[in-house]
Amino acid sequence: MNKKLIIVILIFLLIIVIKYTFSNYSLIYKVNNYDVYTKYNKGRYYFEIKKEHKYNFDIYGKRGLSKVIISDIKEIQFDNYDCILPVIKNMETYPLCYSNNDNQLIDYHLIDDEVLAEYKSEIKEIEKPNKDFIFYNNLNSNEYVALWTYKGYTIMNGKEYNDIKLFKNDRYDNDLAYLINDTIYMPNYDQEHEFDTLIALNLVSQKTHSIKLDKKIDYDSYIVGNIKKKLYIFDNKTSILYEINIRNGETKILSSAEKGYVKYDNGKFVTCSKSEYKVNKVTIDSKKQSIYDYKIDKNVIKTFNDNKELNTLIINTPILIVKENKNSLYYIKDNNFYKYNPNNGEIKVFYDYELSFNNSKAVFMYIK
């Protein structure tokens, strides 16, 4: 066999491996008289199951050589609930439930019945109390949470937490703090009335450094947002929009009464009026578009963008969302900070006695 033929065969095999390892796909099939739709797209498996009712769920994971399918569907019927348990080889699944009373899909963790007890994970809340703060020991090693404590932060990660003191005096208003990737940027609150120094706190290393600015900014300001390594702050007192390079502190006047005003829209700066900054408070939305929609009123209803006709009740009370990661939510409810995912339901992360009273820019989160 000559070298050219060997090379052609190897290239062909490489194409096959790439196709079956990385390419997206969708399947339609039947399992136990249920119609099943499966879609894989960039590390996410989405499923719809239909017979009398239609259910949906998703799982995140790497794709292998074989396509993932539901091999069995177990029925769990009791009282006024119709539940099913999809079975997938080498993947953790959970019951999907429909409430016949409410004509509503409902997270099975919200159903108090012994029939579902065997499917619920027992989460032990191991309290680590510290005066008016309790850490429940339920974070993963890649999850970092920072709680504002008026002079600094309590940083939680994995099974541990650490108090970081940054300032001499208490500062209740923390609205000028802003998280970019794994680092919180905030004024040096020991400077009064106006500031020309930012403090950067890295949540992973828990180390800080100062960033000296070229100009002084009044505390009567608000964060517009960031674009990569540049932070934008609008000073209400001077009506100036500042662009700050967080690498070196270089501070530019991007908008003012003399220069005119611009805002960031669809990937570029466009002309706008001063009143948009003064009245409407212009912001740069740097969040990635979500796969889910969470409707928050008296409770929390989750909808997949894959099928907006299917709505699932996941939490029984209103919440304040801090972060979303894949199909997990991290949020404030009353004086507690929780994380939720469909496998484990609602889990306490920490309690702070003033959290519900002062939750604006009180909690920051980074997932490594």
Oligomer: single chain
> What level of helicity do the residues show?
under 10%
Shape: globular
Structurally, how many domains make up the residues?
3
Query: Could you tell me the number of beta strands?
Result: 31
- With strands numbered from the N-terminus, the spatial order across the biggest sheet is 5-6-7-8-26-25-24
Alpha carbon gyration radius = 25 Å
- Low-confidence spans: pLDDT under 50, at least 5 residues? none
Structural class: mainly beta
Mind describing the biggest β-sheet?
7 strands, mixed
- Beta content comes to over 45%
In round numbers, the mean pLDDT is 92
In DSSP terms, counting alpha (H) and pi (I) runs of 4 or more, how many helices? 2
End-to-end separation in angstroms reads: 48 Å
Task: Describe what is shown at a glance.
This protein has 368 residues and is mainly beta. The chain has helices at residues 3-22, 274-280; strands at residues 25-31, 34-41, 44-50, 54-60, 72-78, 81-87, 96-99, 104-106, 128-130, 133-135, 143-148, 152-157, 160-165, 178-180, 183-187, 194-202, 208-218, 221-227, 230-235, 240-245, 251-255, 261-265, 268-272, 292-296, 300-304, 307-315, 320-325, 328-333, 336-341, 345-352, 363-367.
